[in-house]
Amino acid sequence: MDIELPAAITVRELADLMRRSPIELIKELMNAGVMANINQQIDYDTAAIVAEEMGFHVVEPTVEEPVVEEQAEAAPVATRPRREYSAEEVKFLRTRPPVVTILGHVDHGKTSLLDVIRRSSVQASEVGGITQHIGAYQVDVKGQRITFLDTPGHEAFAAMRARGASVTDIAVLVVAADDGVQPQTREAIAHARAAQVPIVVAINKMDLAAANPDHVKQQLSDLGLVPEDWGGETICVPVSARTKAGIDVLLDTLLIVAEMADLKANPRATAEGVVVEGRLDRARGAIATLLLQEGTLEVGDTIVVGTTYGRIRAMFDYTGAPLAKAGPSTPAVVMGLREVPAAGDTFTEVANERRAREIVAERIEEQQAKSAGATSALTLDEIFAQAQAGKVQSLNLILKADVQGSLEPIRQSLEQIEVKDLSVTFVHEGVGNVAESDVQLAVAANAVIIGFSVGVDASAERLAAAEGVDIRLYDIIYRVIEDVEKALTGMLEPEYAEVLQGRAVVRQVYRISRVGIIAGSQVTEGRASRSAIARIMRNGELIHRGRVSSLKRFTEDVREVAAGLECGIGVDGLNDLQEDDVIEFYTREIVG
Ligand code: GDP
User: Fold this and answer.
1) What sign for the dihedral angle of Cα 497, 500, 501, 507?
2) What is the pTM of this model?
3) Which position has the higher pLDDT, 4 or 124?
4) Distance from residue 135's CA to the centre of ligand 1 (Å)
5) Ligand 1 atom 24: residue of nearest CA
6) Which atom of ligand 1 lies closest to the CA of 174?
7) Are 12 and 38 contacting, i.e. CB atoms less than 8 angstroms apart?
8) Separation between Cα atoms, residue 408 and residue 404, nearest integer Å
9) pLDDT for 483-519, tens place per residue?
């Protein structure tokens, strides 16, 4: 078949011209050593070679066109680290559908897009088109599947990640063309980045007269998401959920990004995955939507989910049709669990119910131990400790401020702080109170939250307390800087040692109501200091250690008392003191 090529053509245009899928073309290009994505231009020679390879006869263009400049390397797709497979397992790996989450600001059209996408496939495959919301669905695009998580927004995404589940392979960031980047758009970007998930931007509401996609692209560029057609790496697809324009392109793009990410799983592995949704049905008991990540789940299998388990009595697909087996990236509604699991819980297939009970018992024990002990997130202090152990190189911060104008100066000042190899990384910044989603992000990204002239939502406070997230509130910029500086130097802090400054001997013990014990003492060497730590020694043995709470000469408060003089000394927490006890004064000093 004859085909006439222009001097330069995009992958999509060439695919259309040949009436082949862009994916086929991209594969062919890969074979020819050219990494290109769907919106990228390829030059005449390359286009001609692959077209010939695909069985076309290329005819010279009728009009001479200038040759385009050298083609840029295709953008590497940022994907989260994949699971490690053994050499044995690698043989069984199969391509799996991408799992896509839709993120974006409220009212930018996430739900509308999900509906349009769902309906586009349902109409073709299903009579009646009844679709129940189960938390996920799949669509067929040119014989290939895409799995969509249909709870849009980063709250669900973050909640899953906070529970340690990373299911999403690609994030679609919806930005309304008439409204541009908004606070939740930024949050969504921060979440997708923290999860190392590639972002495809859907510029929605293109049907509106006020649509200004260039403005959106400019805003995205400012956030480091430079559109492909502006020389960057971010694919932006103009769409309209209302007119359905561009939806097919969006779906094609998702397939291509998936292709580049080379998503694989082993259908023969032990079945495992994540709970997308759970609910209690009065008649049928606990019902959960599971998303398979590895292996194949079958009716009759026993699974452990979080701290519950069960034997799968029945399984359904997203249309409600019975399902005998579910493989990787497939959402499956299952019945038979003892209790309703929570979204984000992970599940694993086990040999039998006895084994399931054992595992659940272990998990409950672990959970109890964990809730009694340390929490999962890091506080500033823990970050110092980890930095000392060489485990972290940067202090991750989430910055919330009352007005946009405060964000920039704070960020700039903090970024200027330089302490050896340690740096400040802004995971996210935004205007408004510290919200639950900020805390979730802090958990996921091991970040500390800094609030400037803002409050903390009650739900955020609760979550922060439960997860041990550090939220620090300030009203004065230099205090923020001071603290972060301290944090960073704290991260570098060498060991402290307590250095002896002086000694005093207790001559008389006074017990004063509401004040406690006061040691009438004489300083015998060095000096007694108000800012010191006191160690009370009796016959050479340490009997108490505490901060000096008061130091007096007669009735007067003093900072120091020199050797030879008498004084009254109070020590925090002291409740046992005798004459002739020795009080040693120490200061904490950095050694090395
Ligand atoms: P969400 O909050 O992001 O889930 O947004 P919705 O999907 O609920 O959409 C918010 C509003 O925008 C609704 O009134 C939709 O009808 C409207 N909307 C969504 N997509 C489009 C679009 O492509 N064009 C126009 N004109 N309106 C849209």
Assistant:
1) positive
2) 0.59
3) 4
4) 20
5) 205
6) 3
7) yes
8) 7
9) 787 777 765 444 456 788 999 999 999 998 888 899 9
